[in-house]
Specification:
8 helices; binds zinc ion; 2 domains; OB fold (Dihydrolipoamide Acetyltransferase, E2P); alpha+beta; 25% strand; de novo design (two linked rop proteins)
């Protein structure tokens, strides 16, 4: 028997009364857990619903192919994020965060930082202290940075200039180039960043998690940042996350 702390990022019905849930945990990454009677029993249904953060006691069983399957033994809810559940737009945005986490599905590795990033983002979405649109941008970009797509943002990759009026980020190589060094400014992978945008994305990519949410930007830059972070997700993952489309419709 093992005990993990985890956030439920997907629920799937299994038969008439059971379900399986996908859990983002700190030590074991993303795992699937079978919940017997989870669609009916009130004792386990609440701590295993989407976006619940819970303490889960699991039985481990190996099947004939040697794969480990997890079965829920007991569960205790730690946080439910009630204010998100009362707001349709916030629920839609949180569902998008869950879809991104399911898409990158990190198994068998330490996901402590990603779990912290997700819980902190949901915490600020829940208490209403941050603009949901800013939370979306921070989560999209920092999540991709933390799973291995962090660009090299310390300076121009050729002459090492720290900044300039315009710097170009190459989405494919993840390298930054200054105006003098960049020879393909209009290339499909080149992304022009002014000083403020470069400062903002450096901050999101590199700052300590404890300070990550403590900045504010103008509406103008928030719009530009949102275009950038969605392009970044589209480039590294895919286009057309249904939950993002739904969030856009519902938050208008
Ligand atoms: Zn340069």
């Amino acid at each position: 028997m093992i005990t993990i702390k985890g956030l439920i990022i997907r629920e799937t019905p299994r038969g008439e009364s059971s379900k399986s849930v996908t859990v983002l945990s700190d030590e074991r990454g993303v795992v699937d857990v079978f919940v017997r009677g989870g669609m009916k029993s009130s004792k386990t249904s609440s701590p295993t619903q989407l976006l619940a953060y819970s303490l889960l006691c699991l039985e481990e069983k190996k099947d004939a192919s040697g794969q480990t399957n997890y079965y829920l033994n007991s569960a205790e809810n730690l946080t439910m994020f009630y204010h998100i559940r009362l707001d349709a737009a916030k629920t839609a945005l949180a569902a998008y965060f869950a879809e991104l986490l399911n898409y990158c599905r990190i198994e068998n590795s330490d996901c402590g930082d990603i779990l912290k990033l997700t819980l902190n983002t949901l915490y600020f979405l829940d208490n209403g202290q941050r603009d949901p649109e800013l939370l979306k941008c921070i989560f999209e970009f920092r999540l991709l940075c933390d799973i291995g797509f962090r660009p090299f943002l310390l300076g121009c990759s050729i002459c090492y200039a720290y900044d300039g009026d315009i710097m170009y980020l190459n989405m494919r190589s993840g390298l930054l180039e200054c105006e003098k060094c960049c020879i393909n400014k209009n290339g499909v992978f080149s992304y022009a960043l002014d000083r403020t945008m470069l400062y903002i994305i450096r901050y999101i990519a590199l700052s300590d998690l404890s300070k990550l949410f403590s900045f504010r930007i103008s509406d103008r830059y928030l719009k530009r940042l949102s275009v950038f972070t969605e392009d970044f997700v589209r480039f590294h993952f895919k286009d057309g996350f249904e939950t993002l489309r739904f969030y856009r419709i519902i938050s208008q």
